[in-house]
Amino acid sequence: MGHSGKILEFRMSVVQLDHGPESISNVLLAQCRTLADSAAKMGLEVGAIGLGVAGKIDGSSGTVIFSPNLPVLNGYPLAKNLQQNMAIPVCMENDAKVFGLGESWAGAARGIRNWVGIVLGTGAGGCLFLGGKLWQGDCLGFSAEIGHMIVEPGGPDCPCGSKGCLEAFASARALVSGAKKALRSQGIKEGLLHECEMEGKLSAESIYDCAKRGDPTALALFDKMGWALGLCLANLFSALGIRCALIGGGVSSAWDLFIGPLQKSLAQNSSMLDPGSALILRSSLGNDAALIGAALLSRKGRRVA
Question: How confident is the model over 201-215, as pLDDT tens digits?
Answer without folding.
Answer: 999 999 999 999 999
